[in-house]
Amino acid sequence: MSEQKVTALTPFDQNLPHGAGHNASMMRNTAIPFDAGMIEHIRVNLSAVERRIDTLKARRSVKKKWQAAWLLKAISCIDLTTLSGDDTPGRVRRLCAKARQPVRPDLMAALGMADRPITVGAVCVYHEMVSTAVEALKGSHIPVAAVSTGFPAGLSPFHLRLAEIHESVAAGASEIDIVISRRHVLTSNWQALYEEVKAFREACGDAHLKAILATGELGSATKIAKASMVAMMAGADFIKTSTGMEKINATQPTSLIMMRAIRDYYERTGYKIGYKPAGGISTAKDAVQYLVLVKEELGRDWLEPTLFRFGASRLLTDIERQLEHFVTGRYSAAHRHPMG
Amino acid sequence: MSTKIAEIFDSMSYGPAPEQSDYVTDWLARHEGGFDLFIDGQWQAPEGTRNSLESRNPATGDLLASIAIAGPADIDKAVAAAKKAYPKWSGLSGHERARHLYALARLIQKNSRFLAVLESMDNGKPIRESRDIDIPLVARHFYHHAGWAQLMEQDLPDYEPLGVVGQIIPWNFPLLMMAWKIAPAIAMGNCVVMKPAEYTSLTALYFAELCREAGLPNGVVNIVTGAGETGELLVRHEDVAKIAFTGSTDVGRLIRRSTAGSGKKLTLELGGKSPFIVFDDADLDSAVEGLVDAIWFNQGQVCCAGSRLIVEEGVADSLIEKIKHRLSNFRLGSPLDKAIDMGAIVDPIQHQRIDELVGQSVREGAVLWQPDIPTPEKGCYYLPSILTDVAPANIAAREEIFGPVLTVTSFRTLAEAADLANNTRYGLSASVWSENINRALEISGLVKAGVLWINCTNQFDAACGFGGYRESGFGREGGREGLYEYMKLRDEWQPSGRDIIEAKAAPKAQSKPHDLIDRTAKIYIGGKQKRPDGGNSLPVMDQGGKLIGLVGDGNRKDIRDAVEAAFKAEGWSKSTGHNRAQILYYIAENLAIREEEFAHRLSRLTGASAKAAKAEVLASISRLFSYGAWADKFDGLVHNPPLRNIALAINEPLGVTAVLCPDRSPLLSFISLLAPHLAMGNRTVIVPSQRFPLIATDFYQILETSDVPDGAVNIVTGHRDGLADVLARHDQVDGLWYFGTAKGSEQVERLSADNLKRCWVNYGKARDWSSPKFGEGRQFLREATQVKNVWLPYGD
Fold first, then answer.
1. Per-residue pLDDT at B508
2. Any idea what the CATH number is for the domain that residue A186 is in?
3. Is the CB of A110 inside 8 Å of chain B's CB atoms?
4. Is residue A8 part of a domain?
5. What ipTM does the predicted assembly reach?
6. Domains in chain A: how many in total?
7. Dihedral sign of CA atoms A57, A281, A135, A213 in order
8. How many angstroms separate the CA atoms of A130 and B676, rounded?
9. Measured between CB atoms, which of A6, A49, A113 is closest to B5?
């Protein structure tokens, strides 16, 4: 076919080199002025989104060695989380130990990864547990994330929500998972949502801000996309689906909607925003499907902890079992893997 | 493979994901000697010298099997087997047939993975598609039609099966097309001789094994393999009552011509050049995925592929960039790999055809874009392709490519989008993308296509009708509308020789009319009485041979003008049912005022008794009332596919229609054939009884005083078969009803093949016009309309 004209593809070139160095050089998002024009055009057709998800599950399949490698990648993207009223320093220290060494060394060796130790993406706790976690993770380069701003409802006094961010940053949290005021979305008060997230972002300083949209409470696919765009305009480093406390938490259709908003924002501004689905992702199979979705919709660059995280507490155990099955050919049991 | 996990961890590549196929290969190995023909429930070697076809895997070029070619003696045997099985099969209760269909559905499900793998090996389509789309729909079709078999006696009591049905299917959805054909046919009590496509017969042959396993009576389903010649033998076989064909428009035309006049019922599901319309308020990312499912589904080898992207200018660049980005992530590869988007083209011949059409399009000025993605070194693969700068006259905008090639055109307004969408000889399907329901529904009404998908594409279900407008064919498959293709109204036609009122041959003229002021009826075009173009008149005699009037001798130019007037009267097709009812009642009212005059005229013309003549006028008035009643009551359906969706089956007018009337019951048959067209919104050119045309020319004044819009009815008197010839050849005529001789019926059907207009002819048989059962009603309405299925998935 001599007439063939191949247009070079930017900005989604799939063949860029990857690795820490590349990602470290990434520009951090800064708030851009509120621009209603960036949200007016947004339209989401939910049934088409659902069809895309249904077929994507069947369009891509990762098997054998590839599956093992992808599951290791999933582990490196987990925000290992404990958000319970009964959390104690002892419990958090145990979690941090798991975060440092999420997979048994013998399994890592069998996977040919003995010289490539991996950790989870971060440890995610309430403010009171931040200092414990920071202490427990010292030297590991694993960041500590704090849920903040009146998590999970976000209805405490505004100045206290800002103060909460300041306190957690001071305690050593390098990532802050804020919750937005859902009422701003439900009433389509986008300017107010922008101002709120922007203020949170300023309070974060150098710490990265993850904006939790609580998508299960927003009521419409198009509003999820618009809220995503506003949060990014206001300077969010990540957008995140859920607190894990809503009736509906992360779903793949919601993730597709948010990822497409991320792509749109990137095309318009050049900033790469991270994505974090949270709540309800508990199986290795789910995790691979999410990674496939990320790769297909955002590209290879996003398959790193700098741009993608799972908010999950139970997921790791299932992945460990699947990895052991890959190594031994036998189905594994949870008690064979050190608990977190 | 030596790739290390650590390397994959860095590259995050997908790796191979092959579907297991050894058990299918084993089955093929067991048939190494070649497949025979499945006739009368047995595997039978072809008669005489064995000729065979080679079935190859298009992804590898490997030989899969050798397949027998059925010759004339084999087709005779297969048809005879079906004919022999027919009395018993059609005599079973609906419930008994339902159990057979149910058993087939269950067996298909139990063998679903085998069938999917075999289909992908034979056809080249991705295993994802055969596994998740084709085979589940196959099973669904048998389940759904098991239900129709169960319900037939209760729900369709006036209908009976046709007999032996010949079915010919294409290679793009081998098993699915087979299910679409066989399930409704046998559910309604017919027996089948099926010819699968020469490239892809294997799943049909496996299905034959399932028929045996299910205990289907011998001869109900016969499967004969071969190429076009085998199909032709089936088409021409005199014991076949119906041909159902899916394939190219060219072959469809040949079949229309070769079955003309035979009385064989015919459904044709042919080619397309379907539009994919994207408005600026669409969810563009979803529209991109829609396009993937539209034109890159099954390598674009889909009759209803959305091959023409028609996009609102303001978002065109943005959408094209998104498509290109998506295609750059496309994965081409082995059909049995579970992680590919597109598999192999069915055959090198098809590949070559795609290449030639694309090459010519580029020479005509189009710009080709293809992604820079890996293509397997071996096998029959074609990159997904986009052609931009495609002028409306470019070959790629007009010809069905049947490959993964999209053309792009932009539009400014909704009306322009509809015009571009309709600027084609085809009318199979359309896809419309907009988040504004007003826009989406408005354009759904404007686009001439049998299936319309709003914010989705290539959705299929057994509960919904599928089939085309224009040169995409006629007839529907699926849904209630699809059942009528496999049934007939019991005792619809009177056997010849049992005529109700035998129209006597016109006696010789004996005298000139002297009891009238010289009055030559003109022809009626566009609401005006006009002199015939040729300036000639025809005499009209009474039963005594006395000349009682002259009518215009219409010619081809009068037909041209009449069709033109009908075409322009588009407002009638858009008017409401209520409005059309009012006018039909008004016509009836005005006829009632002149009841005596018409009765007298009838009596004089036909020699009918005063009583019989009066009865015919009264029946005509009643008939007009019937269609006044029907005008706002021939409702469509809301189908029920398994999806969060509204699927509307809308009865739309054909458009411009032509009617050629019989001599029998000249007023009543004229009214019986005109009124359904008026009621359904067609604009009609009607040729009244050649023997008794005065009954229609008297009618001009009634039309003129009944507010019938100009051009909605046009009446041309003259020689029926001569005018039928012109009308059958006319490309602006969408439907034609002919009630005359057997020879005339053959002529009309044969000539209609050029634009594939819908025909309804009597094959020279008589009809009891006085009977409400056979003289009016739903059958007439169905023949005057075509069903458009509109799919509207919803959710926010």
1. 55
2. 3.20.20.70
3. no
4. no
5. 0.93
6. 1
7. positive
8. 80
9. A113
Q: How many CA within 13 A on the CB side of residue B310?
A: 29
Q: A49: nearest CA in chain B?
A: B286
DSSP string, B548-570: EEEEE---HHHHHHHHHHHHH-H
Total residue length of chain B? 796
Contact between residue B219 and residue B190 where contact means Cβ atoms under 8 Å apart: no
Nearest residue to B184 via CA among B417, B485, B459:
B485
Give a yes or no: residue A232 inside a domain. Answer: yes
Low-confidence residues in chain B, pLDDT < 70? 1, 495-519
Whether the pLDDT of residue A6 is over 80: the answer is no
Average pLDDT across chain B, whole number: 95
Half-sphere exposure of B594 (CA within 13 A, CB side): 17
Provide, as residue numbers in chain B, all residues whose Cβ is less than 8 Å from the Cβ of A300.
Answer: 12
What count of other Cβ atoms lies within 10 Å of the Cβ of residue A189?
15
CA distance B788 to B550: 44
Which residues in chain B are contacts of A46 at CB distance < 8 A?
795-796
Picking from A68, A72, A220, the nearest residue to B796 by CB comes out as A220
Q: Is the dihedral of CA B662, B668, B671, B672 positive or negative?
A: negative
Domains of chain B, each with CATH number or no CATH: 22-270 (3.40.605.10), 274-467 (3.40.309.10), 520-793 (3.40.605.10)
pLDDT given for residue B514 in this prediction: 53
**DSSP secondary structure letter of residue A248:** S
Catalytically active residues of A are 177, 240, 276
A257: nearest CA in chain B? B285
CB-count exposure of residue A61 (10 Å: 0-12, 13-18, 19+): buried
Q: Which residue of A has its CA nearest to B373?
A: A6
Give the pLDDT of residue B502: 44
d(CA B208, CA B222): 8
Residues shown for chain A = 340
> What does the alpha-carbon distance between residue A168 and residue A191 come to, in Å, rounded to a whole number?
26
Chain A's closest residue to B792, CA to CA, is: A47
d(CA B166, CA B145): 19
Sign, CA dihedral B570-B575-B580-B583, equals negative
Q: Is B231 left (phi over 0), alpha (psi -120 to 50) or beta?
A: alpha
Residue A169 lies in a domain: yes
- Residue B30 and residue B209 in contact, taking contact as beta carbons nearer than 8 Å: no
Give residue B496's pLDDT.
58
Instruction: Establish if A81 belongs to a structural domain.
Output: yes
Using CA atoms, how far apart are residues B46 and B68, in angstroms rounded to an integer?
Answer: 7
- Tell me if B372 and A6 make a contact (CB, 8 A cut-off): yes
Which chain B residues are within 8 Å of A61, Cβ to Cβ? 14, 17, 338-339
Q: Residue B254: helix, strand or coil by DSSP?
A: helix
Query: Inter-chain contact B5–A4, Cβ cutoff 8 Å?
Result: no
What are residue B487's DSSP bridge partners? Answer: B161
Tell me the CA end-to-end span of chain B in Å, nearest whole number.
Answer: 46
Domain that holds residue A54: 29-336
- Whether B15 sits inside 8 A of A303 (CB atoms) is no
Q: Give the pLDDT of residue A5.
A: 37
CA atoms of B434 and B443, how far apart (whole Å): 10
Per-residue pLDDT for A137 more than 80?
Answer: yes
Q: Which residue has the higher pLDDT, A160 or A25?
A: A160
**Within an 8 Å CB–CB cutoff, is residue A201 touching chain B?**
no
Percentage of chain A with pLDDT > 70?
Answer: 92
Task: Give the pLDDT score at A23.
Answer: 42
pTM of the predicted model as reported, rounded to 2 decimal places: 0.94
Contact: A113, B9; criterion CB under 8 Å: yes
Helix (H) or strand (E) holding B741: none
**Contact at CB, B14 and A62, closer than 8 angstroms:** yes
* Res. A328: pLDDT tops 60: yes
Yes or no: say if B211 and B192 are a contact pair by the CB < 8 Å rule: no
- Establish whether the linkage from the previous residue to A11 is cis, with ω within 30° of 0: yes
Select from B12, B286, B325 the Cβ nearest to the Cβ of A48: B286
